[in-house]
Design a protein that fits this description.
- The complex is a heterodimer of chains A (134) and B (401).
- With 134 residues, chain A is α/β, with parallel strands linked by helices.
- Chain A is 37% helix and 18% strand.
- Chain A has a single domain, classed as D-Maltodextrin-Binding Protein, domain 2 (3-Layer(aba) Sandwich).
- Chain A is globular and about 40 Å long.
- Chain B has a single domain, classed as Porin, CATH 2.40.160.
- Chain B is 8% helix and 53% strand.
- In chain B, β3 and β4 form a beta hairpin.
- Classes of the chains: A alpha/beta (134), B mainly beta (401).
- Chains A and B meet through α2, α4 and β4 of A and β1, β2, β3, β5 and β6 of B.
Chain lengths: 134, 401
């Protein structure tokens, strides 16, 4: 609880980034696409290949901050969408990773993947790409 | 086989699967998910989910297990099996909840379009598709005026086809579902619409349904409209002299529901309103007295989230089985085996939820009810013994993975 409060209040100071695997062609992604992809509402990149979505656990500070600042929704709304899709057979959960190291590793190793990372994390831009958002 | 203790039997199997589901991180094309829910109900009068009148009834569980496989980027398949025990309404027998193939022609943010065939969950209002999945519900019992448990087989799933799409529109996006199929009709549906187990059978049924949900500002505001027409064919039994026998023909149902929701970080305000017309003209029998009736239902619900772990719920839910007879007086004269309060219900609900861990959800709930309109006949066989004013207290534990 304390962490949540601290996480939210420190939010605006940090710029987190959307990262994709190197094979993803998009250099820039608009906000609607980002929300649809992380909601698992759309499941393919424009070239037709599956989007593989990685997220941190619901209660993770970075997850909460990313969802609110970049997707401009609340984490419970994402969770509701995922649950509704999985338990009606119409969609799947994203893959939940435990921490930023695992996020970075999974996105770098999985084709068509998308995730996010905090600014403080040291990225090797030869293994993942940061995309612009508009 | 007695399915009452199915929950305990399956628990070990489910925990076994939990371990194997950790492989899904490595293989995103295949997934296994499930849940197990146990509820307990206690009432001061009348029965809810078993024999709950002045004693706790544990006669309620929901267990679901599903799997999905992505055959190709455009093609998915998914299956869910459910066991639900709910008093005398559901006996816990495992049922195929959905089994579908989903082909998505178009999958862009501007326009996603696809088709699903097989056994499909029915897209009605905000909650119907996942009504048996405890952690998708705002409360232990969904507002019974719209999501009455009695006719659940009709509302649960349908064998047919859905054309669906998600379109980018000004301000947000629009989710559309158009469905045609053959609903499941069993004895519970007869109880719901006839208030008794008719001598013959409901079969040869079909229905069309459409739902549109407009989501504004990432879903901060959601507005929905659902419309449906169902035709349930009735075939009489062998003895035409029985008091409750009906003519061969169709029971025609039509439904119109409006849904609206506002979501902020800590609270959600939700309301739904439904008109549900029942047309018994072709069936005659005891229904000659009141051949066309419109049920009117609505609820208003406030959810408050203190933080990730705790939430509060306050709801007012109102059902009139005959919109033109809100106190049930005329109907209780016509159908003299049922008191006036059996034709409406006003339910004030207060609930609290606790998620100590993402996989667990516990809820407690208090219902203060006037009227017995949505109580199940199966658990309350003598309508004249029902009490007009009653309270229910319930607890629920859910584990999902």
């Amino acid at each position: 609880m304390l962490f949540v409060v601290l996480g939210l209040s420190s939010g605006p100071l940090l710029a987190d980034s959307v990262i994709v695997s190197l094979d993803v062609k998009e250099q820039a992604i608009n906000k609607n696409f980002l929300l649809a992809a992380f909601s698992m509402r759309i499941t393919r990149w424009p070239d037709g290949r599956p989007i593989r979505v990685f997220v941190l656990p619901d209660r993770n500070n970075l997850h909460q901050r990313f969802v609110k600042q970049h997707l401009q929704v609340f984490p419970y709304q994402l969770r509701n969408n995922w649950d509704r899709q999985v338990y009606t057979g119409t969609g799947s959960f994203p893959v939940t990773v435990e921490n930023m190291e695992e996020m970075y590793r999974m996105v770098s190793q999985t084709e068509g993947s998308i995730g996010y990372i905090a600014e403080s994390f040291k990225l090797n831009l030869e293994t993942v790409r940061v995309v612009d958002e508009f | 086989m007695n399915f009452k203790y199915f929950a305990t039997l399956l628990l070990s199997a489910v925990s076994g699967l939990c371990l194997s589901s950790s492989v899904r991180a490595a293989e995103e094309t295949f997934s296994v998910n499930g849940f197990i829910t146990q509820g307990v109900f206690y009432t001061d009068n009348n029965n809810v989910y078993g024999d709950s009148d002045n004693k706790p009834s544990f006669d309620f569980h929901e267990i679901g297990l599903n799997t999905a496989y992505r055959f190709a980027p455009e093609l998915r398949g998914a299956v869910q099996v459910m066991s639900r025990q709910a008093g005398e309404v559901d006996n816990g027998e495992p049922k195929l909840d959905y089994a579908l193939l989903d082909y998505r022609f178009n999958d862009s943010v501007e326009k996603a379009v696809g088709v699903r065939v097989g056994r499909l969950k029915i897209p009605f209002g905000f909650y119907n598709e996942t009504r048996d999945v405890a952690f998708t519900r705002p409360s232990i019992m969904l507002p019974q005026s719209l999501y009455f448990d009695q006719a659940r087989d009709l509302e649960l799933s349908i064998d047919g086809v859905i054309l669906y799409s998600s379109l980018e529109v000004p301000g947000g996006w629009l989710d559309l579902d158009l469905l045609y199929g053959s609903p499941q009709t069993d004895t519970n549906v007869e109880y719901a619409y006839f208030a008794f187990d008719a001598p013959g059978k409901l079969n040869d049924s079909d229905g069309v349904m459409g739902r549109a949900i407009y989501s504004v500002d990432g879903g901060r505001i959601r507005v929905g409209l659902t419309g449906a027409e169902y035709r349930l064919g009735y075939k009489p039994g062998n003895d035409p002299t029985l008091w409750n026998e009906l003519n061969e023909g169709n029971l025609n149902l039509s439904v119109l529901a409006l849904s609206a929701q506002y979501n902020s970080e800590n609270w959600s305000l939700t309301g739904e309103y439904m008109l549900h017309e029942l047309d018994w003209r072709e069936l005659g029998g005891v229904f000659t007295l009141n051949p066309v009736t419109t049920i009117e239902s609505y609820y208003v619900q406030l959810q408050y989230r203190f933080n990730y772990s705790w939430d509060l719920l306050l709801r007012y839910d109102d059902l009139k089985l005959d919109k033109d007879d809100p106190q049930g007086k005329q109907n209780s004269v016509l159908f003299y085996t049922r008191p006036a309060h059996n034709f409406y219900a006003k339910d004030l609900t207060l609930g609290v939820g606790w998620r100590p861990d993402p996989k667990w959800l516990f809820r407690a709930e208090l219902h203060n009810v006037e009227g017995t309109g949505w109580l199940a006949e199966q658990d309350n066989p003598d309508a004249l013994a029902l009490r007009k004013y009653w309270n229910a207290f319930s607890l629920q534990a859910t584990y999902h993975f």
